[in-house]
Amino acid sequence: MNSKRALELKVELWLLVVVVVWAANYPVAKYGLQGMNPFVFNALRYLVAALVLAAPLVRWSLWQPIERTDVPRILRAGMIASVIYQIAFITGLSLTTAGNSAVLLSTSPLWTMFLNARIHKEKIQPLMWVGMGVSLCGVIMIISGSGKKIELGGNELIGDVITLAAAALWGLNTNLQKPLLVRYSPTQLAFLLTAIGAIGLSLIAAPALVSYEWTSVHWTYYLAAILSGALSIGIANGLWSNGVRQLGPSRTANFNNLVPVFAFGISYLALREQLLPIQFLGAGVTIVGVWIARR
Q: Residue 212 half-sphere exposure, CB side, CA atoms within 13 Å?
C-alpha cells in the first residue's frame, strides 16, 4: 500500500468516527431539546464546540494569520454552515414529518457532488454516481422500515422545501471549505466556522436567553448540550474538514449516508428497538453504495 492510499485510509477511518458520533448525537440532542429551548440549546452547543476547537490552536500555536481576501469567504461559509443551515434544519423539521426530513437530508451528498462539479469543475466519475444512487436507495429503505411517516404534498410541502434547501446548504458548505483548507488547517477553519455560528446563534437566542430560567433546567439537559457540542460539532466538524481537505468534497460527503446505518445499529444494540428485514437490507445496500463511490 503506497503512502497516499495509507493516508486516505486513515482519513476514511476518522470519517467513520464522525459518522458514529453523528449517529449517536440524535438521541442525545433529542433528549436535550426536551428540557431546553431549541435556540438556547443550539447556542450553548456552538459555544462549547468553539471552546473545544480553540484548545489545540492555543496549545500548539497552530493559528495561521488570516488573509484579508479570505475574511468574506470565511464569514460566508460560517453563516451558511453554522447559522442558516441550523435555522433551515430546525424550521423544516418542525413543519414536515420526521420521515420526510430524514429522506430529504440524506440527499446532501448528491448536492455536494453536484456543486463540486459546478464550483470546482471536477468531473464526476460514473462509479460515484452509481455509488451515491445505491447508498441513497439504502437510506430510504432504512427510513421506510423505521415507521417514520413519509408524506408527499399537503401541509408538509413547505417544510419539505425548507429541508431540501438545508440539504443543499450542507452540500454548499462542504464545497466552500475546499479552497480555504489549502491555506488553513482543518482545526482552525472548523473553529472559525463554529465561532461564527456561536455568535450568530447566540444573537438569535438573545430574547430567550434574557428571560431564561437557568436554574430550573435539570443538569442532565446541560450535559446533553455540552456533549453534543463538544463531540458532534467540535471534534466531528474538525475531522470532517480534514476529510474535505484530503479526499475532496464528494468522497467525504458520501460518508453522510452511513449515519442512518450507524443510527440503525445503535438503536438495535443499545435500545433493543424492533427492526424489520427491510432495514437490515437497507443498511447493507447503503454500505455497498458507499464502498462503490469511494473506489
A: 18
pLDDT tens, position by position, 167-218: 899 889 989 998 999 999 999 999 999 999 999 999 998 988 888 888 888 9
How far is the C-alpha of 142 from the C-alpha of 284, rounded, in Å?
10
CA separation for the pair 285, 279 (Å, rounded): 10
All 3 cell numbers of residue 70?
479570505
Q: Are 283 and 51 in contact (CB under 8 A)?
A: no
Report how far apart, in Å, the C-alpha atoms of 280 and of each of 31, 109, 260 are: 26, 22, 11
Specify the pTM.
Answer: 0.82
CA distance 234 to 50: 7
Nearest to 92 by CA among 197, 164, 170, 172: 164
Instruction: Name 3's Cβ contacts closer than 8 Å, sequence gap at least 6.
Output: none
Instruction: Write the DSSP string, 36-75.
Output: S-HHHHHHHHHHHHHHHHHHHHHHTT-PPPPPGGGHHHHH
Sign of CA dihedral 27, 30, 36, 41: positive
